[in-house]
Every structure is written in structure tokens, then in C-alpha cells.
Design goal:
CATH architecture: 3-Layer(aba) Sandwich
Number of strands: 12
Structural class: alpha/beta
Mean pLDDT: 93
Number of helices: 8
Strand order of the largest sheet: 2-7-1-10-11-12
Shape: globular
Strand content: 15-25%
Radius of gyration: 17 Å
Helix content: 25-40%
Number of domains: 1
CATH class: Alpha Beta
Order of helices and strands: EHEEEEHHEHHEEEHEHEHE
Distance between the termini: 11 Å
């Protein structure tokens, strides 16, 4: 079974677009592929008496395997804010065990699972208690902790805009510092007015130390099928 964890240099850089593009690419080699939005913050009525998240709906549409919502999105929080704040507002505490269990069940059903994170690498999922001393010893969780718990290779989505070189290099360093593999990265051209985009991409190709899997064009109406992905050979 093939699995990967998709993270980004920031919020709104195209992680869902990249995750869907990966699913479409994997589906050309494997019959059963499924996307998982481990933690989603922001929900709308689904028209069936329940609630759903926009990213989760996109991942389900790009999947060839339909699974229960509890597996493809084990944590759904109502408000579109940082997950730890959304959880506090909902009176919930995000823990890793249910997410890991959902992933393990997906892994028994699918040939390939693409797990999309939330925000960037260190986005908090739960917060330390306000009276915790020291704060570093408190049981706070981040997206990085989730990726480590799943032990998946990571795909980094780089939002191509001013500042992305620093953000990409810091995120790559953090991923490797956690003992995880940076399997590749995907460029997301989020700023069509950015100066010297090709020079920025070339610098990252020389310095990130991982293969460029896709160069996703700016799209006013994002369509993952328009994104060409070069999968690592071991995923084909």
C-alpha cells in the first residue's frame, strides 16, 4: 500500500489541489485510491442533514474508492479557523488515536492513500493548558505530530510567492528533523504577478534535495486534472 502525507508552506497554497492531482496520478496505476483530510476546520451543510468540508468533498471526488466519512475525515470542526481554536470553540480536544485508526483502516481497503494536512507543518491541533509549566512539556499537538504518528513520506506544496524560499527550506528542515522523508515537492503558482518565478523554482530544485513532482499553474477555477504529476517510481 502506498501512502503519503501532503503539507504546505502556508495556508491557502494549494494542498487540496495538489492532493487531488496526486490521487488522479495514482489512479492511473492503482485501481483503489482514496484521499483523507485528517483534520478539517470549517463545515457547511451537506444537503443530506449532515455537515461536510470543502476540501474533503474535493478529495472524495478525486478518489476512486468511496469510504465512510468517518474514515476520510475523522475530525471535522465547525469553524474555519486554526484547528486548535476550532476545537476549543467546539468543546473538543483533537487526539491522534482516532486519526491513526482511521488511516489504518483506509490502508487495508486501498492501494494508495493521500493524507492532506491542515495549514502548514507546525499548525497546532490542540493547545497546551494555560497553566502548563513549562509550556514545552504540555500535551499540545501539531500537524507534524500527526505526520510522525502516521510515519508517511511527505510531499511539500510550495506556494510560489515572495517569501516561499525561506518557507520551503524551513519546512523541509523541520520535516527531516522529525525523521521523516521528504518524498518530493509540488509548485503551486498562487501569485500570477510574482516576479522571477522560474528563478525561484530553479533555486528550490538546486537546494531542496527532493524531486519536483509537479508545477501547478495558477487557475482561477482550480482543476486538479489540469495538473501533471510525475510520481516517484516506487509509487507507480
Amino acid at each position: 500500500m502506498i501512502g503519503c502525507f501532503v503539507t504546505g508552506t502556508d495556508t491557502g497554497v494549494g494542498k487540496t489541489l495538489a492532493s487531488c492531482a496526486l490521487l488522479h496520478a495514482l489512479a492511473r496505476h492503482h485501481p483503489r485510491v482514496v484521499g483523507m483530510k485528517a483534520v478539517a476546520a470549517g463545515a457547511e451543510p451537506d444537503g443530506l442533514g449532515g455537515w461536510s468540508n470543502e476540501d474533503t468533498r474535493a478529495l472524495r471526488a478525486a478518489s476512486t474508492l468511496i469510504v465512510p466519512h468517518a474514515l476520510s475525515n475523522p475530525v471535522l470542526l465547525p469553524d474555519p479557523v486554526s484547528p486548535h481554536i476550532a476545537a476549543q470553540r467546539a468543546g473538543r480536544v483533537v487526539t491522534l488515536a482516532p486519526i491513526v485508526s482511521a488511516y489504518q483502516q483506509l490502508a487495508t481497503l486501498a492501494d494508495a492513500v493521500v493524507v492532506e494536512g491542515a495549514g502548514g507543518w507546525l499548525v497546532p491541533l490542540s493547545d497546551a493548558p494555560p497553566d502548563a509549566v513549562p509550556a514545552s512539556a504540555a500535551p499540545a499537538l501539531s500537524i507534524a505530530d500527526l505526520a510522525v504518528a502516521l510515519q508517511l513520506p511527505v510531499v511539500l506544496v510550495v506556494g510560489l510567492k515572495l517569501g516561499c524560499l525561506n518557507h520551503a527550506m524551513l519546512t523541509a528542515m523541520a520535516i527531516r528533523a522529525q525523521g521523516l522523508t521528504l518524498a518530493g515537492w509540488m509548485v503551486s503558482r498562487v501569485d500570477p504577478a510574482m516576479l522571477e518565478p522560474e528563478a525561484n523554482i530553479a533555486w528550490l530544485q538546486r537546494n531542496l534535495g527532493a524531486p519536483l513532482l509537479a508545477d501547478m499553474p495558477y487557475q482561477a477555477q482550480p482543476d486538479a486534472r489540469r495538473c501533471t504529476v510525475q510520481l516517484p517510481k516506487e509509487w507507480q
